[in-house]
Amino acid sequence: MTKKESLIQAHGGYRKLKSFQVSQLVFDVTVRFCDKYICNFSRTKDQMVQAARSGVQNIAEGSQASATSKKTELKLTQVARASLEELRLDYEDFLRQNNFVQWQRARPLRQSLIDRRCRTADEVALWVIENYKSQNECKNTMSTKSSMSTKSTNSYAEYSANAVLLLLAVACALLDRQAVQRGFSDFVWYS
Questions:
Q1: 127, 119 contact by CB (below 8 A)
Q2: Would residue 23 count as lying in a domain?
Q3: pTM of this structure
Q4: Which one, of 16, 163, 30, 33, lies nearest residue 86 by Cα?
Q5: Residue 21 vs residues 36, 59, 81, 127, 164: alpha-carbon distances, Å
């Protein structure tokens, strides 16, 4: 039997999928974010980490199942997408509940993060620190120490949450594209 006549199609290779790579980055950053900004005793912390984990795990499982069942692959891809959407809502809630700004699509910082092509949570953290400092340098030189807000000490949280929201948008767009490429265009989600 030749490779073309194989009974089971090639499958797996999920580690090469951009959707998996970005989702895994979202998971890593979410674990750090929750450890730093979400109360240890909050159910939200566990929910956020589990939603991020579910996104990654279901992409991998769907990829593995693709050889024997396209239906299972689609289902698991949809579960991954739904988990990431749940996580997106948690980050949006965090920003709203803490009176932080959710960045609009036109904000140049968003493109700056995309262009950076971060591969690790450390790289995302470095981007957050660099951009927070550069964006607030002018503000800080114009204000006196006595007028500086205590909120500024927590603004890394605002930048971090917005960075993850952008990474989530990328991951979800990649999953949508993946569904279309696999012939599941009727099932594409739109953000």
A1: no
A2: yes
A3: 0.82
A4: 30
A5: 23, 10, 14, 18, 14
Spell out the alpha helix ranges (H) of the chain: 18-37, 43-65, 70-97, 108-116, 121-142, 155-181
Encoded tokens for 100: 């932080």
Q: Fill in the amino acid letter for 183.
A: G
- Whether residue 5 is contained in a domain is answered as no
The DSSP output letter for 8 is S
Show the domain range for 73. Answer: 11-144+151-185
Tokens 């279309």 appear where?
180
**Residue 169 three-state SS:** helix
The total number of structural domains in the chain stands at 1
Residue 80 falls within a domain, yes or no? yes
* pLDDT (tens digit per residue) in 126-156: 999 999 998 877 665 555 444 444 444 468 9
Looking at 20-24, 117-121, 135-139, which range is the least confident one?
135-139
Q: Which residues contact 188 (CB under 8 A, 6 or more apart)?
A: 176, 179, 180
Tell me how far CA of residue 59 lies from CA of 102, 116, 134, 161, in angstroms: 27, 24, 36, 23
